[in-house]
User: Fold this.
Amino acid sequence: MKIFLAFSFRDEDKLLVSYLDQLVQSHSVQVVTGERLGGEQLTPAVKARIDQCQALVGLLTRRDPKQAGGWTTHQWVLDEMAYAREHGKRAIALIEDGVDSGGMYQPNEHIPLKRETLAEALIGLSETIGVWRRETGRTLKVQILPTGVAKKAGADNENIRCRHRLWLGGKYTEWREVTPVPEGGGTFVFIEGVQEDHLVQLQLQEQKKKWQSTATSQWVMVHLSPGAGQ
Assistant:
């Protein structure tokens, strides 16, 4: 899983950003940022980075004091949050106390942030990422067998179509296209969004020929054989 971390590049936010970066990575998640891509604007390069992520965490800290009270925040972070939401990404905002976010976020879409009680916000973010990880699932590497069919799947042949679907709780997902990858030990597919209890089914079609597996458990079978005594 990849999470885009949107934040200000000001010195006063560096320590806070480092805490968030460490927390997100502790969930075995890759952190992607907009650093070194032109600074404070939503460029096509930043959009491309957000597109490759499954979720976004936005850090809305204080910027300038407002005459009527409260604080402004960083427009480019708001823009990155809005872009992620418009494109169906999971997103959560950490909003520093006193920041006016323009009413963009409902109570269940943000985490209040106070620097003097930072642990509360970090725990809330950790719980959110945990939920995202469970819902997103993991990437499963599956070897295609038998060898003859696997070679067909791994060949550069436009007439061959490979698909997969998942089974859980008596229901199948829709069939989804997947690309076979020939490697030294065989031909494999990489299936995303797999949860612990999912069964996996593969289908390979070449014109009028079709090969299809049963819905198969992820659990590994280990065969024991007699060995030398200890």
